[in-house]
């Protein structure tokens, strides 16, 4: 009997595909919900039936090389993926192990802060604190661990008001800078002036929508905009999206932002329909750390029935424009 020829790489792939999964699905799904990361990774590898050397080979072919020793350290809890190339390898591992995207990366805590970032992070409120509890339970459905690790370099926020004084569409564009390695998403947060259905979120490419949560009873919406890859420290990303009221448009008397992180330049613009110009407009700024220092100033409409306000070097705060009509 002649000896068998060595397996071709494609035969190896097929053999892997036939490997029985050795882990009860409920056990692995429980670990993917609660962690810890190292245990979830170890069990996912065990369930897939792949050796560490086989995983290393697969990662090389995915263009995300890490050593078998590194994977071993991750699953034993001796280290964790933090640098961008490690996070890219982790995303490839999720695919190789037949796991949903971000199933493992969502279990990672943010990297331990170092240097001047320690004091900066401590001074920033959480997203829930920045919104003064107004988002209620909607934040439970999204991953907010990276929100304080992104500084807003610039932001332009524009709201269109229709002929009935209702909010029609909101456009937002901002430039964000990562203050540490790893941020892979931005959280869109919104609250209407009154309860009702949430607007439709329409992101611009390349961001895609992740988890979404809304509470019509309070008019709130939170949603994840996922970047195409994790950011390295100091790297910037442009986030742009529309919020459009497709069915019911809520009455509106203000356009404001709850700023969780510092913003170098923030522009808020409101455009009114010619059939419903307001009788008064005011810009306001309420610092999160010192509400007693709130400021307000009158604004004028231009010939196109637009008004705007600009804030420079804003700290975490509430910043926006309010308006009224005669008798309202």
Largest sheet, strands/sense/barrel: 6 strands, mixed
Q: Measured on Cα atoms, how large is the radius of gyration? A: 24 Å
Strand content: 25-35%
| Secondary-structure arrangement, i.e. CATH architecture of the largest domain | Sandwich
Unreliable stretches (pLDDT < 50, length at least 5) are: 1-24, 113-122
The domain count comes to: 2
**Number of H- or I-type helical stretches:** 8
Order of helices and strands: HHHHHHHHEEEEEEEEEEEEE
CATH names the topology of the largest domain as: Immunoglobulin-like
* C-alpha geometry: elongated
The assigned structural class equals alpha+beta
Report the top-level CATH class of the largest domain: Mainly Beta
Topology:
Blueprint: H1 9-17, H2 25-34, H3 37-48, H4 52-61, H5 68-76, H6 84-96, H7 117-122, H8 127-130, E1 150-161, E2 167-178, E3 185-191, E4 200-203, E5 208-215, E6 220-226, E7 236-244, E8 254-259, E9 263-272, E10 280-287, E11 295-299, E12 306-314, E13 317-324
Parallel strand pairs: 1-9
Antiparallel strand pairs: 1-2, 2-7, 3-6, 4-7, 5-6, 8-13, 9-12, 10-11, 10-13
Helix pairs in contact: 4-5
Give a description of the structure.
The structure is a single chain. The protein has two domains: 9-107, 434 Repressor (Amino-terminal Domain), CATH 1.10.260; 120-324, Immunoglobulin-like (Sandwich). A six-stranded mixed β-sheet has the order 4-7-2-1-9-12, with no helix packed on it. Strands 8-13-10-11 form a four-stranded antiparallel β-sheet, with no helix packed on it. A three-stranded antiparallel β-sheet has the order 3-6-5, with no helix packed on it. The protein has helices at residues 9-17, 25-34, 37-48, 52-61, 68-76, 84-96, 117-122, 127-130; strands at residues 150-161, 167-178, 185-191, 200-203, 208-215, 220-226, 236-244, 254-259, 263-272, 280-287, 295-299, 306-314, 317-324. With 328 residues, it is an alpha+beta fold. The model is unreliable at 1-24 and 113-122 (pLDDT under 50). 22% of the residues lie in helices and 32% in strands.
